[in-house]
Specification:
Elements: H1 6-11, H2 17-29, E1 36-40, H3 48-55, E2 62-66, H4 80-92, H5 100-115, H6 122-136, H7 140-143, H8 145-158
Parallel strand pairs: 1-2
């Protein structure tokens, strides 16, 4: 489950959140304790604190799975200015209140993000998102508005060509 609500639906098109969450509730009602697996990518990493906060009150363990391919979806693709904003957001979110299982993985992803500069693939990320939006008739910016605003701010400051439909 790579997101909640519309963010899930965007990333797992054409799945429907209402159906998936209903199935989750049925499993819990039957006595199962599901573990959620989130594939962490450049699409959703910014929203990881909110995602974890959604599941925390339910006592659900969240396993974080690393997306490295295609490379433009790897969290190392962000320009340094976006990486800095993500780190600042995570500090404000006080992610240290999550269980040690989850917190260890969050630290791993922050370290992975910092470990290399793959920002030469950032234009490809923006291009792919725009292509998906066109053929799916979706809009990343509407579903991920805060991160889209950060992309817009960073892109305009750095004078990169923005091929994403913001």
């Amino acid at each position: 489950l790579d997101g909640v609500g519309e963010q899930f639906e965007y990333q797992r098109h054409p799945a429907r959140w209402k159906t998936v969450y209903s199935n989750f509730e049925k499993f819990r009602a039957a006595g199962y304790e599901p573990t959620i697996c989130l594939s962490v990518s450049a699409l959703n990493f910014y929203y990881l604190p909110e995602y974890l906060e959604f599941w925390r009150p339910l006592g659900v363990r969240v396993h974080l799975n690393e997306v490295t391919m295609p490379e433009y979806f790897d969290v190392r693709v962000y320009p340094n200015s976006i990486k800095a904003k993500i780190e600042a957001k995570f500090r404000r979110a006080q992610v240290d209140r999550f269980d040690s299982f989850t917190l260890g993985r969050v630290d791993t992803f922050l370290n992975q993000m910092r470990s290399a500069d793959h920002s030469h693939l950032w234009p490809e990320f923006l291009k792919i998102v725009a292509i998906h939006d066109r053929y799916r008739k979706e809009n990343y910016s509407q579903v991920f508005p805060e991160f889209a605003a950060l992309i817009e701010e960073t892109t305009s400051k750095n004078h990169h060509t923005n091929t994403m439909s913001l």
